Q: What sequence folds into this?
């Protein structure tokens, strides 16, 4: 089995199945913390870690790890161009906005899913621009189909109402804010994807998983 997949499955989703709603809510109650300044991001098998006070996009493939923190700026535009060439989706990057503001604008425009997908690919496109042979682009469409099958969960996990719940004292989240099916892991404000030897993550600074290396404890 691919080394990355073994590590990702052990670290992210040892059960390989969707967790019961009660367990997922319990996870949120344990992991959730007030919106904080520190955001941790780590690749699953390559020793590379980053800490910052903004959202992060991360990619591991081809023996390399890339971790980007926003403002993503031109990297966001580059990711939009990369995806637009390969997908029949409309991407409207917000290079002058932080991720929090951009996600709110995208949600109001009915494009929250597309914006999250765009942020998911920021680090991958950044790595591709430096070492194109390390980032597989022939699987972009298949990854989008896989992630797109959980569009509702993605939109719930990154919605303004979910962010407000994280910031508030009552941390009760809809079941749709959580997903763990092995190749896709979603928690409020965080998404990880593994496919075809590539691992990617986008995590907001306000995520319940901000203090964890990934989206959930393994």
A:
């Amino acid at each position: 089995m691919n080394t990355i997949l073994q590590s990702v499955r052990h670290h992210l989703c040892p059960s390989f199945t969707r967790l019961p709603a009660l367990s997922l809510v319990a996870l949120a109650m344990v992991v959730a913390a007030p919106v904080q300044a520190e955001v941790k991001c780590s690749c699953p098998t390559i020793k590379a870690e980053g800490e910052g006070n903004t959202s992060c996009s991360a990619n591991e493939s081809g023996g390399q790890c890339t971790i980007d923190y926003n403002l993503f700026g031109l990297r966001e535009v580059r990711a939009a161009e990369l995806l637009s060439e390969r997908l029949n989706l409309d991407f409207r990057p917000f290079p002058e906005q932080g991720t929090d503001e951009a996600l709110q604008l995208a949600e109001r425009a009915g494009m929250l899913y597309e914006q999250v997908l765009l942020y998911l690919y920021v680090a991958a496109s950044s790595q591709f621009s430096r070492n194109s042979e390390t980032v597989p682009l022939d699987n972009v469409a298949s990854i989008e189909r896989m992630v797109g099958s959980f569009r509702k969960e993605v939109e719930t996990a990154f919605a303004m109402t979910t962010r407000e719940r994280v910031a508030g004292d009552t941390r009760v989240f809809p079941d749709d804010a959580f997903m763990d099916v092995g190749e896709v892991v979603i928690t409020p404000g965080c998404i990880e994807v593994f496919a075809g030897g590539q691992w990617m993550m986008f995590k907001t600074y306000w995520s319940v998983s901000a203090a964890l290396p990934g989206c959930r404890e393994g």
Observations:
- The two ends are 19 Å apart (CA to CA).
- The first strand starts at residue 39 and ends at 42.
